[in-house]
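ok trying again, last paste got cut off:
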Amino acid sequence: MNYRERMRGLREDNDLTQAQVAKVINKSQQGYNHIEIGRAELKIEDLITLCEFYHVTVDYLIGRTEK
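nice, full thing came through this time. structure:
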């Protein structure tokens, strides 16, 4: 599983919209959508922010662990 799939899964598991998560990382909904579908890359700063927001490790978000 790649980080894009994990991002979407975490967002859906928490009943959040793309617009809501986009605000967390200071992106537009469209900008966030581009990351989630692979048209844009996730910046390391945004990766860290999302991990803190969802209370998961970077290893989990990037698919290195299932915990």
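cool. The chain has one domain: 3-61. The chain has a mean pLDDT of 97.
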